[in-house]
Amino acid sequence: MTEFRSKALIALGGNLPSAAGEPKSTLVAAIAELSRRGLYVQLLSRFFRTPCFPAGAGPDYVNAVIQVKTDIPSADLLAILHEVEAKFARVRDQRWGMRTLDLDLIARDDQVSPDLRTYKHWQNLPPDEQVRQAPKQLILPHPRLQDRGFVLVPLCDIAPNWVHPVLGVSAMEMLAALPKGSVAEVQPL
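RESULT FIELD:
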């Protein structure tokens, strides 16, 4: 049996159908594909429904989080996530637009990549710039993790005590800091 040394947290989401079916079916098929590509899926959250933002801009999203064990380097893991997205017809023509599948590497153990200074730049980027700019390299942990109920609610389903390596707070503490309304919108399927 292979001994894995590293844990990664991956957020999954989608709000458009793919060849696999409706968004929940796409997420299930994507998880199976990740397993076929050498990721050992250790934990899987429940599936959650999240309203599209802004309200009325499209169908609701289905979101989940998985914890995987792997020895695949983070950059190669990100490439695998992009390959799986493409397999399910993900088109990257609009930042934060509707999609069949979104796979985000949100954390890898206590790794901060590429370095703390770069991470803090992306974490502190003003909201209007977040829409216009995207990093050219992998940033870990995901710089918007603490702001997103659709990630934190499923993350707390499987790893409520996971501690953010920069902020020094748990997933549950980050979730508790969000506005109650944005958390209440994330509903189990």
